[in-house]
Amino acid sequence: MNIKKEIVLRVRIVFLLVCLFACAIVYKVVQIQVLDGTKWKQISKERRIRYQPVPATRGNIYSDNESILATSLPFYRVAFDPAIAQTETFNAGIDSLAMLLSRFYKDQSPEHYRRKIKNARHAGRRYIRLNSRQINYQEKKMMASWPIFRAGKNKGGVIFEKVEKRFKPFGMLAERTIGFINEDKNGAGLEYSFNGDLAGTDGEALFERIAGGNKPIYDGTEVAPQNGYDIKTTIDINLQDVAENALYKALVEKNADYGCVILMEVKTGEIKAMANLGKTKGGYIEDYNYAVGNQGRTEPGSTFKLASMLALFEHTGMALTDTVDTGDGRYRIKNTTMTDVKIGGYGKLTTQEVFEKSSNIGIAKLIQENFGDNQQAFVDYLHKFGLSSTLGFQMDGEARPYIKNTSDKTWYGTSLTSMSIGYEMKLAPLQTLALYNAVANNGVKVQPIIVKEIRRADQVIQTFQTRVLNERIASEETIKKVRTMLEGVVQNGTARNIRSADYKVAGKTGTARKVKDGKYVKLYSTSFAGYFPADNPKYSCIVIIDSPRGVNVYGGDVAAPVFKEVADKAYARDLAMHQPLRARVVPNKDSLPQVKAGSLDDLGLILNKIGVSNHSTATSDDEWVRVTPQMRSLKFEPNPVRGGQVPDVTGMTLRDALFILGNQHLKVSVEGMGKRVQKQSVQPGTEINKETKITIVLS
């Protein structure tokens, strides 16, 4: 065979193979289109039409007085079946409809909408999305009256696709407490914790997948969704507002990192307010629930001294008048030195004074002396008080408390005394408050609750009653002792700046150093926990201000005033707490006592006795103050007495003036008659020498 014949043969073979392949393609096309056409059309239809869930309407969240905290509002996407309307109806209304759509959405011309709808009708399309913007219910009602649309879904072709959005009528108020839930079913707060009740059960219906979206098919097989239950909380929206405003002002003033306030009813454990604010670039917002969660779990500091005193009284039966020598303000324990705030120390103090002045040394010495030989006994008391266990709070995310045990590897020689003043442990604010609430409740520890009812419309599905966690955390005698001590802190101790003439407050300040990179730094977590009215407690409250900056950054200066503002507003709103007028001494507020200067302790005691409102910028180290009238109250400001300088004694009583000037080794002569010093011959601040003489004139 020559080369030419071989080439021709190969070409013929290739041609034959191509013809066979072409015939196979034609056969396959005929098979798919004709022989198996019905089968593939059915498969295509099945893939385009399928059941999809129909979301249930989410339940509402209510406050204690039925105010809506969160609800679901209906919004709608507007779609259209352009082929369904009769020709006469369509032609008569299309121009007006296009004009109305253009005016409403303000994004396209009337000609654009007219062309879009007519092109879809001519192409036989059964579903188009007119605009992606969602409309509200009132806008839906308006659109339903437009040309073509007014014929309804079956004759006009308009399709209003319902989309629900969560709405909070009070805006940012209690935002983190109310919480959220996202599409992935993750979230926080009540929305997340009670999602199973609020969400309801989705239904299902047939939808056809077409260009532009999914068109519902109403064939009678739809399953209606079961709407979610409503929940009624214990939150008082007015007290919540008060708590958030007071907290916000304090955070801004002190440029603090974050803070929280919890207000709770003593008997029931119902949370009436829970405010959380954290610092962001845009200001302070509710970005985390510090009151309950891990980020708010810190070393409590001096507020924990209440637990130490409970353990001490239960273990020893010690009296409030028993004494302890706190020395010069420095106490060596193993290889560390504990100090008190007051330079030079407090010397000998009664047990009551140890607590009122928040003496670290006094508490540590008492605990070391009575539990040093059996340190586990102290830890066991903390377990008895329930401080090592979670409260079982209704909202997810409660932090697990950490109370160190003597068996822990980190337990060392100073752990007992460190724990006695609130270190080497961690508690969430709500867990600390539960202890104070138990003391206010005569030793009965109740579980805090924030949801009172689950219901559908007016039908109550489930009620949450007050649950007792511990029938008695301590003996009646012990509870009486610590309640006296807590009242003393406000009357005579580190929180006397929040004394009230209208009602008694009991509580404890706290100032705990922060840990950064494993070391204690000069930043503090400040707090105040307590209850009011002290003689018949209605509310307990805790305030945390983390990392305040500037001067006066102790618990009594930062957190306690927030407590007082919340307590004043709560007291003013609750008439049941007010004493009968005939049982109260009502001072003439328009005629304040002519007080000018004197001893902080003496003036505070006298003014409280006669019912005159007073507040102070002085600290516990300021023995002498000047008094300034402010509206209907008196303000105490420090009047320091410095060694080697002439003090300012104007406005003081003769007795106080002679006491101070004598201690400065000044030669004093007195002129005039009267009760108070009107002027002095040597200016305050003048250096004192052996020849310095001073004359004071009385008026």
TrEMBL record:
One GO biological process term: cell division
Domain of life, source organism: Bacteria
Official protein name in the record: Cell division protein FtsI (Penicillin-binding protein 3)
Transmembrane segments: 7-27
Keyword flag NAD: no
A GO cellular component annotation in the UniProt record: plasma membrane
A Gene Ontology molecular function term of the record: penicillin binding
Pfam families to which the protein is assigned, alphabetical: PASTA (PF03793), PBP_dimer (PF03717), Transpeptidase (PF00905)
InterPro entries associated with the record: Beta-lactam/transpept, Beta-lactam/transpept-like, PASTA_dom, PBP_dimer, PBP_dimer_sf, PCN-bd_Tpept
Keywords: Carboxypeptidase, Cell cycle, Cell division, Hydrolase, Membrane, Protease, Transmembrane, Transmembrane helix
SUPFAM superfamilies assigned: beta-lactamase/transpeptidase-like (SSF56601), Penicillin binding protein dimerisation domain (SSF56519), Penicillin-binding protein 2x (pbp-2x), c-terminal domain (SSF54184)
Location in or out of the cell: Membrane
This protein's record includes keyword RNA-binding: no
Organism: Pontibacter lucknowensis
Annotated signal peptide: none
Residue ranges constituting the PASTA domain according to the UniProt record: 640-699
